[in-house]
Amino acid sequence: MSSILRFVVARRAKLTVSVVLVLSAALMAPAVQAQQLHTKFGCSLTRDEDGEKVIYGDTGEFKLDGDKIEALRWESAQYRPTHGFECSIDTGDGVQAELQHDGLKDNWRITLKDPVAARHQRGYDSFNHGMNCSIRLQREGDKLHVLPSCPALCGSRVNFTELSVNLKTGDCSYPG
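Given the sequence above, the corresponding structure tokens read:
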């Protein structure tokens, strides 16, 4: 066998081995993991709204792995000089999650499996104050926006306060 032919055969063998190694590595690599969110927060703000002192307070924990809820609790309060409101939601309310990823941000939608049952479990009347509950969690980089619409829980008021949390620093902000 001429030296040129040996060179070509050896070169093809190396190329074949390289392709096989690359394919093996690709097949053994773990599948892309679902998006995760693990955060705890505590937020408060006092501000003047139309000449009235209003205190906002929120504490919570969201631990989501894709569509799976590992932990979820959120307590939201709003106090004024003459009255106050508190509301909470947790895994005991029969929550479920749906994840959407649009390339720029992760979007979770938390809903109640059975809003009527959750309302009755809390001891509220069966009047229809809106039997839906949706809490959107939108993560954009280090910022988590919490956007609630959940009239099914805690009476008949708008019961959770919209807020944003910086996931690195823990700093909170309320719109308005």
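The CA atoms of residues 62 and 82 lie 32 Å apart. Try to locate this feature in the token string yourself.
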